[in-house]
Design brief:
By secondary structure, the chain is mainly α. It contains four helices and no strands. It holds the Pfam family Multi_Drug_Res. Keywords: Cell membrane, Membrane, Transmembrane, Transmembrane helix, Transport. GO terms for molecular function: transmembrane transporter activity.
C-alpha cells in the first residue's frame, strides 16, 4: 500500500513541477523555477522508492500517463488552456491504456 501512495505522491510532484515549468516563463522566474527543480527531484525520489517493490513497466505507465492527464487538467484550470474534443479523447485513451497495463501485468514484484 505504501508503494502505491508513493506513486501517487510522485504523480502529484511531477504535475506540480510541470505546471510550474509553464509558469516559469522559460526558467526566468525564480520561484516557479525552484518549484520545477524541487518537484521533479521529489517525483523521481518518490518513484525510485516505489520501484523497490513495484514493477517498472506498469508503474512508469501509470506515472507518466496520469501525470500527462494531470498536467492537461492543471493547464486548463490554472492557465485557462483550451480543450478540444480531440484532447479529451486523447486523455481518455491515455487513461484506458494505463488501466489495461495495470490490469494486464502485476504491479508488485514482492
Amino acid at each position: 500500500m505504501t508503494a502505491y501512495l508513493l506513486v501517487g505522491a510522485a504523480i502529484c510532484a511531477e504535475v506540480t513541477a510541470t505546471l510550474a515549468l509553464r509558469a516559469s516563463h522559460g526558467l526566468t522566474r525564480l520561484l516557479p523555477s525552484a518549484v520545477v527543480a524541487i518537484g521533479y527531484i521529489a517525483a523521481f525520489v518518490l518513484l525510485a522508492q516505489a520501484l523497490k517493490s513495484l514493477n517498472v513497466g506498469p508503474v512508469y505507465a501509470v506515472w507518466s500517463g496520469l501525470g500527462t492527464v494531470g498536467a492537461l487538467v492543471g493547464g486548463v484550470i490554472v492557465f485557462g488552456e483550451p480543450v478540444k474534443p480531440a484532447t479529451v479523447a486523447g486523455a481518455v485513451l491515455v487513461v484506458a491504456g494505463v488501466a489495461v497495463l495495470y490490469l494486464g501485468g502485476g504491479m508488485s514484484h514482492e
